[in-house]
Amino acid sequence: MERRTFKNLGLFATAAIITTFSACQNKETKTTETAKKTDSTAVVSASEKIVFVNQDSLLTKYEYYKDLKNKFEKKTKDAQSDMQAKGQAFQREVAQYQQNAGTLAADVRKTTEERLARKQQELQTYQQNAGGALQNEQAVETEKLYDKVAGYLKTYAKDKGYKMVLSYTKGSTILFADETLDITSDVIKGLNEDYTKTKK
């Protein structure tokens, strides 16, 4: 094995393990104007059959989502720190070998290089497994989040007599929706009340 095998380790050691908390986080961006409109919206008349929820506001104000987001940001940061520490330790080991390689017998150099190659492969496998496990956990929790919101909205709509609850976000296919159909504030209030009960 040639020493150049280990030169790319710096990139490997510092590579991000996963993307942070799913596509939901990307949808979190919202304008102040949108937020103000959502906050000031009155309760929708029971005669309305189709209403909507502002998804941007829902994600930024739903406490369960915020806790979940913080949890995965910490897990991602911890995983990256762990991987970086392991990579740096390996780099030090490689550097020490390279420094002493000229004084080592040929068979010792060969054995050491084979061992270092195996260790590098193990680190790469560890990185892939750690990233995959975190992504899987994230997917499961995102599904739970969706089910929790959808389940609440199903009951909420039935109680209010609504026939359809649409999800609105800036740039969606809904180009205009009357603000009197916006039930976001009421839904966020109910979701947070339910979540607070489960935490106690």
UniProtKB/TrEMBL annotation:
Key words, A-Z: Coiled coil, Signal
Pfam family, one: OmpH
Domain of life from the UniProt record: Bacteria
Coiled coil: 109-136
Family: Belongs to the Skp family.
Name this polypeptide is given: OmpH family outer membrane protein
High-level lineage: Bacteria, Pseudomonadati, Bacteroidota, Sphingobacteriia, Sphingobacteriales
